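ugh ok so i messed up the first submission bc i forgot one of the chains. this is the corrected input, ALL of the components this time, i swear. 1130 residues overall. if the numbers dont match what u have on ur side tell me asap before i send this to the collaborators (the ones from the other lab, u know who)
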Amino acid sequence: MKKSIFQRHRRFIPLYLMMVPGLLYLFINNYIPMAGIIIAFKQVNFRLGILKSPWVKFNNFTYLFHTDDAWTITRNTILYNVAFIILGTAMAIVIAILLNELRSKFGKKAYQTVILVPYLISMVVVSYLVNALLATETGFINNSIIGAFGGDPVSWYSTPKYWPFILMLVYLWKNFGYQSIIYYASVVGLDAGLYEAAAIDGATRWQRIIHVTLPGLKPTIITLVLMSIGRIFYSDFGLFYQVPMDSGPLINITNTIDTYVYRGLMQSNNIGMSSAAGVYQSLVGCALVLLANFIVNKVSKEDALF
Amino acid sequence: MKGRWKKLASLGIAAAMFCSVLAGCGGDGEAEGGNAGTNGPDGGAPTEDQQSGEDNTQEEGGGDDMAAYFKSKDHYTLKVMAFGDADTATLEKISAKLSEITEEKLNCDVELTRIGFASYMTQLNLALSSGDELDLFIPMASPIDYVNAGQIQPLDELIPTYAPGLNGQLEEKDWVTQTFNGEIYGLPVNSEKGHTLGFGMRKDICDELGIDYANLGSWDDLHDALVKVKEAHPDMYPIVSNGGAMFGSDVQYTGQDSCGDTYNLAVLADPFDANGKIESWFTTDQFKEVCTRMYQWAQEGLVMPDASTNTDVANTLMAAGKAFGYFQHMKPGWETEQSAMNGTETVAWRYGVPTYTGGAMAWFVPTASGDPERAVAFFDLMYNDPVVANLVINGIEGENYVLDGELAKYPDGADAASNSYSRQAWAWPNQQIGYFWEGEDTTLWDQYAAFNQEAKTPESFGFTFDATMVMNEVTACTNVYQKYVPALLCGTLDPETTIPTLNEEMEKAGINKIVEEKQAQFDQWKTSK
Amino acid sequence: MVEKNNRFQIVVHFVMILLCVFCLFPFLLLVVSSFADEQQLIRDGYSIIPKSFSLAAYEYIFRNAATIFKAYGTTIMVTVVGTVLNIVLTTLLAYPLSRKDLPHRNAWSFVVFFTMLFNGGLVPSYIMWTQYFHIKNTYAALIVPGLMMGAFYVIMMRTNLSQNIPEEVLEAARIDGAGEWKILIRIVVPMSLPIIATLVLLVGLAYWNDWTNGLYYLTKTKYYTIQVLLNAMLQDLQVLLTSSFSGASNVDITSMPSTSIKMAIAVVGAIPVLCIYPFFQKYFVKGITVGAVKG
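and heres the new structure output, hopefully the right one now
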């Protein structure tokens, strides 16, 4: 019995060996520190050490569900993320296909470089740029655009209704280039033979995109979307805190789980409560990914993540 | 499927292994803590005797005994951390110079680390939470949280023995603000010990428009002055916020006493009323009055637009000629200091009651410190030895500063921004024994002394609020606070409609529970006093 | 047909140019403001047409030119070493996972993916890396924690490999007597150059842009990368203004970066990548096309 297992696995030994360094790294960098999750269930006292600190059951979690805000922050976090996933993916795929259809080599190069520019700018600076555009008196939009047409200046930072769009625009601006390049690599990597066959069959460009490119991208799309679903309860702190300048009147529309936790704990630095938030975010993400992966598994088995 | 569970089981093993990591951290701290307790008394005994006679010559003698005591201990490297930027090379030089002195007096080396403000909080919290080697630090947050998390240690027993100089100079009152749960944790720095409220403004414009800044008697007077400014200089904002905050940068004060915490939710409306009750700040008349005034002024165009989302500090706006004035906490010498920052002569109208708050800053010894005795002794050295004080405050003579007679200044061609050891004199134990700098008022320390004497002590002096029991409510209320209060204080929101909404949401978020809890703690503290 | 195709090309160019304007406009605003006179900027606000010209912001940043160039050097070293290590580890792990015949393939994938879902927080990682691996204040601190390999890259590569490398090719190689290592190096790697090139780009950018490792694991400025350095300059003021720190009003903030300096900081951080990127892209495109032809 033992021997047969060995024989069955023997030809995979080189493969296992290849996996060792990577798995070892994940073990050290990710799995061992994961035991820190217990902090979420402790009232940490460093004099006693983390392990000996008293257990407090779910006390560290209750603040997340304490008020009506719990609903607002959950709604905001999920809706923004869903919008980001859908819009971001759609835009990235379109750009990737357009880049691929382009014949000019110079154009391909130039466009690829330029759309990556926003990704290189940190969110803090982005927040200053947005402020440069939106500031009531000195901002570019009120000053140069609305002013030029004789309109009344808009007080952007105290008008919540614009902000879902502003945040989406900023998100897309910053990230679409990066995502496009990921998809572009997949498009280019597609089997050239399929395209030739399609051309011989006399397929139009549109047919070729629908029947060859998109199906070819399916695995990449599914992988990337599943991975974003795992992070659906997280939000980019810079985008939701710094870009709206922590403006009070906007908080109902810009408050996410991360910013709520930050605002609530910034003065007390409570390690138990902040890790409780992380555990909550991870658990929901994990559950959703398992569900999504289960569905993918049912529909097309080979594309499932695991 | 089976395979998956096997792999999942391996996760369990990972978690188990990790326990050793966490235990390592906790255990260290505990061991060191115990160490301190046992070593201190027996070795310290002779110096404690010396200490009973509290005069200077005795302290000198005490120092020799202390040197002898530390000689008998193992050599040690003391790790000291403070904020402010500094180059590695400069730090190494300063550490070496400090070590020459401490080698002789404390039989130890000193390793000084300084970290810029941007990373200081993160790095300090990591160091304190992981049991890193660290012996002495200055915090950038309220110490009560460090106390509650067991990250710093009480120093009651160590201070008389190992910080005789400090102990001799401080009064009872100075220790009150450093005491938490009945034990002394902090080593206070020598600074101004209170503040008053005020409005700072450009002198040239005051003169031009005939504003009698020294004798503004009331809010109406200030209003008239601001209207004049607005008319004469339509391009200038009469009032600007300081990076989004209207009344002070950390906690916004309008005269209330947030007694014992930085949350600023449950307060004493009148700090000096012996029978005052804790109440929600947002239901007080004072709060409404301030917001209404600011709203009215904002409507008249006296406050900068977007004041609550402004990212520029008031000094920058002043320097750019865009601002006339701003509110801030006042201390002696405020005008000189701010004039230099604003690049234009700045004067102030002080309108609050000078309030005694105790020392603003203090240094602490982490639980994980390998040698709290030497940490305390080194603080004492920084507090009393001018050579050490000048080293830690100003850096190396000839490189970071040069002496011009009695006064220090930057070497030719250098300035604050290019200095390889940034100067934050107020944060070090005793800036008053260091050099004065060019442009500084040499009578400043006398002014400090007079101010400290004159400042009125509030009823809650010495009380600290432990929010552990109401953290849920505090986090919820803090979020509501951010939603309305900064904008209300900047006059952006209409208090008539907003304050009722604010109070409704505050109540839902549980502010009453915070008020009750704080009142209970406050009563208990009062009776035990 | 040809005419129609040309029209299509023109439409694509038009769309792409529009997008580029969308991307570049704020960046242009950034560059212009970085050269603006600070006081003028505060008085008149931002504009795309410079109203004043001043190099003060760059003088501020480069007054310690030696430090800046050392930091650039550190960044380049860290980016190169980190990217190479990352790609090697990622490829070694992703290739077996892409093999449909690997026993318990899905379970292994889950083990990798799971690290994206849960983390133990910063403090345990910090304890791990500083007390057991002693990386505090070393160059390793900039390379090893967090970035040296990540589930995201592994899974992207796995998906790509299992899609683009036909099993018949591997089978044929095996019949020729090639071992797994030989197959990996001689067949899989050359065939997966497009995804490797993409990952080099993504990982390289991640290393270039990273400042968090420096924030957590470095206290000595001599190890700073350019992003750690710039980020410290950028956030000093921000932190002071938002901290509940009673000493904050004592800090002399006039020596801290003002608006135009913040803009200049962003330019200084991004420009080198924009300069290097077109050169890298030659290899990037080459890698992609080589892979495509072979595929």
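quick check: Confidence is low (pLDDT under 50) at residues 291-295 of chain C. that seems consistent at least. The longest helix of chain C spans residues 259-294.
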